[in-house]
Amino acid sequence: MIHFERTKLANGLTVIVHRDQTTPMVAVDVCYNVGSRDEHPDRTGFAHLFEHLMFGGSKHIPSYDEPLQKAGGDNNAYTSNDLTNYYLTLPKNNIETGFWLESDRMLELAFSKTSLDVQRNVVIEEFKQRQLNQPYGDVWPLIRQLAYKVHPYQWPTIGREISHIEKATIQQVKDFFFAHYAPDNAVLVVTGDVDFDQVVKLADRWFGSIPNRHVKPRNIPQEPEQTEIREQTVVRDVPSDTIYMAYHTADRLDPVYYATDLVSDVLSNGNSSRMYINLVQKEKIFTELDAYLSGDFEPGLFVVSGKPSNGVSLDFARKAIERELDRMKQDRVPEYELEKVKNKVEANIVYGEMNYLTKAMNLATNEILQDANLINTQVESYRSVTSEQIQEVSQHIFRPENCSVLHYIAKK
Amino acid sequence: MLNRSIQPTVNPIEHIDLVKAESRRLSNGIPVYFVNAGTQDVVKIDFIFEAGTWFQTTNLVASLCNSMFEEGSRNFTATEIAEKFDFFGAYLQLTVDQSQGFVNVVSLGKHLSAILEVTEDLIKRSIFPEHELEVLIAKNKQKWLLENEKVRTLCQKKFTQVMFGDAHPYAINNKLEDFDQITREDLMRFYKTFYHSGNCHIIASGNINEEVLQLLDRYFGGTDWQQSPVVIPEYEICPSPVKKHHVEKANGIQSAIRVGKFWVPKSHPDFHALSILSTILGGYFGSRLMTNIREEKGYTYGIGSYVLNLKKASYLVISTEVGNEYIEPTLAEIAVEMKRLQTELVSENELETVKSYLLGEFLRDFDGPFALASSFKAINDFGLDYSFYDQALKVLRNITSAELMQLAQQYLNIEDFYTVVAGSNQLQ
After folding, report:
1. Band of the pLDDT at A412, cuts 50, 70, 90?
2. Nearest chain A Cα distance for residue B377, angstroms
3. pLDDT of A160 above 90
4. Contact A207, A13 (CB under 8 A)
């Protein structure tokens, strides 16, 4: 259980404080409700490129990193399809430097041409490092493109192609900033040995004067229901064939999300999971086999991926996966097995409560999703899942017409 | 009126609470070092054996032997071991490095007894079943194939071979055919020789109370798993006479770069000051290499330098991945940055920045049970005590730009460095 207090400043900025008296540090997390799903289809990768630019100086502060380091601080950030999260840690007596830095870049960036030129290049190298020069680096982009025809989840955070990044202009950067970076579109979370009133006072002092930018609610085209199976085969210079099967699932706030998550745990979380025991250990059909959720806020994907053992065809491997998925549809998961996956989820939640920064990040992302308190109610949500619900959700998800299959073939 | 152009007052970090590990011995003499900290009922127990790759005479034996612990013991099958850990939401991590083999367990305190019961069996009575070994080898082969497609893996392998010589245990030189030559007997022999109470110590962190210590003694304190002491083999380091090396990887659009040289050990009087120097060069986001090569030139997504301390050697290495067209300019800039450290004083401003940053890192290294445990391990492995950190703090607070320049002149001569590039371009 994470106790926290929450308030909203007059300009719309949500402030959340969790007190952890065991650490000499504080975490300051500013999470913006903007991700690659908010991009224009011809300018993909923009949210992520923008994250880089957020370190290129703000209106009154030419360098972000140096003053932070002077205060003993460290920071990082990431962009997902759904949000952009910036977080820093500092010794607690230097907390105000965190507020100073984060509020100035929420107020306005420097919009430096040099920074754009350089970061464009950095991101292009990142694109190569993550995707083009990495075995299996293009798997996710291919799956997304196959599974989504309308929804912006069809492109990866890094962008659909390098040219989109190359073409970014300063005007587009400015427009993006004022459209999405605003107190009314963000949440500020502070964790550490801090007092709620003290944090609110600091927040008001540094963030209070930033204007509410009346960010428009997003209007994203929803993915129509898939009606027939989609298949794609690619040949790549990789060591072994791999099969990917992606099924559409519910969004993160749908009550069935928790049951869906447990389905993936029953199938492949840990060496005692079904698919591991049956298909890796006993039948030796695969050397690697995983089932996982993409975890996206809007309706996401349930992916099963597997590398068949030497000499096993992808077709045979796929049938073996389908056999396991059919079992999920036909039979109820026994009580013991359900208890096991729930225990594991619960233990993981406890492990996640050990660190002040992890707590700040979880509070922030859940508040963007809907409500920071989801991190406290999730235990009960998982606990109350029944084997009947698991069966129902399996029947609903594991339908051929709901599936996109990617055959990733090794060039011989 | 709020002045946004001025940084709020920065308060110096005056006090760092260097929480120390306590120690005691199990009944059979196994040293247990423990840190009781944190708010959650979580326990991490690291069983550490002097059983790293240093001790293997055949490639892969150390790591495969260690990995097989979860594949079956006298009283539990692989599936039963996995069931127990999964059911109690606990984690078992099996790893090896150059000097040690690890069996690390993370569990909720309330389930520790059940978890240690299995852990005892898999450590003391591992049986190396044939079928599971075959599966494991097939899995590892595929992983090997994947890893060896990556320029950074190829580069690191070559770099260690160049530095230490192919036959040295610090050189990574495993080959695909090694997987076919390994036998169950090799693993069992290694297991018998290195995994026993006389070759073990334990580091425990988290909610460590008397009950936890008693459980450890109950399961691991007996004399039933004693063997003769381990003889530590000696190897000679045979660095390559050639300083520049290339590894060809066809069709790559980026290349991996390693530039490194041997470094002083942790016990050396210059060690702490040199750590500050290497941080300035490439050890943090504001470092010279990051600023110049990423933030000004945009040649790479990331570049950094770090010092790797092994028991018998230490080295400094700069590592990055760059577009093929940026290989030469990157190497040139690395040389420029070293030269600058040798010829220009680090400004007061930069020195202040790096000092504050490192003090903040110090706080982080001593914050929370797991961080405290790894800070302890970082000295214990080298036979050092906590005065190492007192000394590090003292040097950090007092170091001057003049001293750093002098050290750079002594330690950062580009002609002493080995350069390895892995990619599809020939190194000129």
Report:
1. confident
2. 20
3. yes
4. yes
Q: Which residues of chain B are in CATH 3.30.830.10 domains?
A: 22-220, 244-423
The class that CATH gives domain B22-220 is alpha beta
Interchain contact, A272 vs B150, CB within 8 Å:
no
CB contact under 8 A, A340 and B86: yes
pTM of the model as a whole: 0.93
List B33's β-bridge partners, or say none.
B23, B203
Q: What is the DSSP letter of A340?
A: H
Q: Using a CB-CB distance cutoff of 8 angstroms, which residues of chain B are in contact with residue A239? A: 142, 145-146, 148-149
φ/ψ bin of B176: left (φ > 0), alpha (ψ from -120 to 50), beta (otherwise): alpha
Residues of A in contact with B17 (CB under 8 A): 24
What's the pLDDT score for residue B426? 52
Interface size between A and B, measured as CB pairs under 8 A: 214
The span from the CA of B144 to the CA of B153, in Å, is 10
Q: Regarding the domain delimited by A230-410, which CATH topology (the fold level of the hierarchy) does it fall under?
A: Cytochrome Bc1 Complex; Chain A, domain 1 (3.30.830)
Q: Which CATH architecture has domain B244-423?
A: 2-Layer Sandwich (3.30)
Over the stretch A359-371, which tens digit does the pLDDT of each residue have? Answer: 999 999 999 999 9
Q: For residues A208-228, b (16+ Cβ closer than 10 Å) or e, as one string?
A: bebeebebeeeeeeebeebee
Answer yes or no: do B356 and A240 touch at CB < 8 A: no
Does the beta-carbon distance from A74 to B299 stay under 8 Å?
Answer: no
CB under 8 Å to B206, separation ≥6 — which residues? B35, B36, B37, B38, B40, B42, B43, B44, B109, B369, B370
From B301's Cα to the closest Cα of chain A, the distance in A is: 5
In chain A, which residue's Cα lies nearest the Cα of B81?
Answer: A272
The complex's ipTM works out to: 0.90
Give the chain B residue whose CA is nearest to the CA of A71. B10
Contacts of A24 in chain B (CB under 8 A): 16-17, 363, 367
Provide, as residue numbers in chain B, all residues whose Cβ is less than 8 Å from the Cβ of A126: 301
Q: Does the domain made of A5-207 have the CATH classification 1.10.287.180?
A: no
- Smallest CA–CA distance, residue B151 to chain A, in Å, is 8
Residue A112 in contact with residue A56, Cβ under 8 Å?
A: yes
The answer to whether the A5-207 and A230-410 domains have the same CATH topology is: yes
- The first and second tokens of residue A338, run together, are 């359900």
Measured N-to-C along each axis, helices B348-365 and B387-398 cross at an angle, to the nearest 10 degrees, of 160
Cβ pair B40:A132 closer than 8 A: no
Q: Where are the domains of chain A?
A: 5-207, 230-410
pLDDT at B291: 94
pLDDT in tens, A285-308: 999 999 999 999 999 999 999 999
- Computed over its alpha carbons, how large is the radius of gyration of chain B? 24
Predicted confidence band of residue B16 (pLDDT cuts 50, 70, 90): confident
User: HSE (CB half, 13 Å, CA atoms) of B112?
Assistant: 26
Q: What is the mean pLDDT of residues A268-285?
A: 95
Interface test with A, best of B301, B355, B424 (most A CBs within 10 A): B301
Residue with tokens 């929450």: A6
The CA distance from A112 to A63, in Å, is 12
Rounded Cα–Cα distance for residues A247 and B412 (Å): 55
Contact across the interface for B254 and A122, Cβ inside 8 Å:
no
